[in-house]
Write a structure and sequence with these properties.
There is one protein chain. The chain contains 10 helices and 4 strands, in the order αββαααββαααααα. By secondary structure, it is mainly alpha-helical. It folds into 2 domains: 93 residues, Arc Repressor Mutant, subunit A; 145 residues, Up-down Bundle (Four Helix Bundle (Hemerythrin (Met), subunit A)), CATH 1.20.120. A two-stranded antiparallel ribbon has the order 1-2. Strands 3-4 form a two-stranded antiparallel sheet. The relative contact order is 0.11.
Length: 264
């Protein structure tokens, strides 16, 4: 992993240095969060407080460390997160800039306040997805055309092939196509837009290494198939139930991954 100025650095090193400097993350009830995640949030707050806009130059790493009362090591790790999720542009030899809002994942609707390292935000995002996608699947079971059913079925098979071949990129491609295909079959463009935006936000968590499918991709494939079959058969309640099971299972995988990262 590379830092902004190309000095090799790992998150574990950053955390170790933060602890050594008395700069560890705050304890919350039942949850420990690394300091660099908290600093990433503080940088976003600072951008707002300074009224910085896309393209504006930000304070240097050194200035951020002083302002936030932390080390440059921790600031660098925080900047990595913000760069990976499209919030900050780190330009070699030029410094840090607020990213162009058009390039930010999920910026059009909720990117301004969603923080992918905030566990509460991830849980709320899944609550939101559950509401959207259960309704979308119910409508799809009533409205899907034969061509839309073929798109959904093809997405299921793409996921299945990606899983069996160990091709994560293909699995992710099929996963996106499946959820957006179900939304499209609802014939409600508001739901299509909402599902697309929510998945873009969820992708931010994947970019920084927090993934929900993990070792249960096989189960996800079968859950997709159950949703497809219910939609194909016109069973709206069964489609909604299968969607709820799928999203609840995926959220539980996120919970396990979070627990693994926090407690080892």
């Amino acid at each position: 992993m590379e830092s902004v100025d190309s000095v090799p650095l790992t998150s574990r090193q950053a955390e170790a240095e933060a602890v050594a400097a008395g700069d560890a993350g705050r304890e919350m009830p039942g949850v420990y969060r690394p300091r660099y995640e908290l600093v990433a949030e503080q940088i976003l707050e600072l951008i707002s407080e300074l009224d910085l806009h896309p393209g504006d130059r930000m304070p240097t790493e050194k200035d951020l460390a002083v302002r936030l009362g932390t080390s440059r090591t921790v600031v660098r790790e925080a900047v990595k997160i913000l760069s990976a999720t499209g919030r900050v542009s780190a330009q070699k030899g030029r410094g840090l800039y607020v990213a162009d809002s058009e390039s930010m994942l999920g910026a059009r609707q909720w990117g301004g306040f969603f923080v992918p390292t905030n566990l509460d935000h991830i849980f709320m995002l899944f609550e939101f997805r559950r509401i959207q996608e259960t309704q979308a699947s119910m409508l799809a079971a009533k409205r899907a055309s034969p061509s839309e059913l073929r798109v959904i079925e093809a997405a299921v098979q793409t996921c299945r092939h990606g899983y069996t071949s160990g091709d994560n990129a293909q699995f992710d491609q099929g996963d996106d196509a499946f959820h957006l295909g179900v939304a499209a079959a609802s014939h409600n463009f508001f739901l299509v837009s909402a599902v697309r935006e929510a998945r873009m936000l969820q992708r931010q968590a994947s970019v920084i290494g927090l993934r929900g499918i993990g070792g249960r991709a096989d189960a996800a494939v079968e859950e997709h198939d159950a949703i497809y079959r219910a939609i194909r058969d016109g069973e709206s309640e069964a489609a909604a139930q299968a969607t709820s099971v799928h999203l609840d299972s995926t959220l539980e995988d996120y919970r396990r991954e979070i627990q693994r990262r926090v407690f080892g």
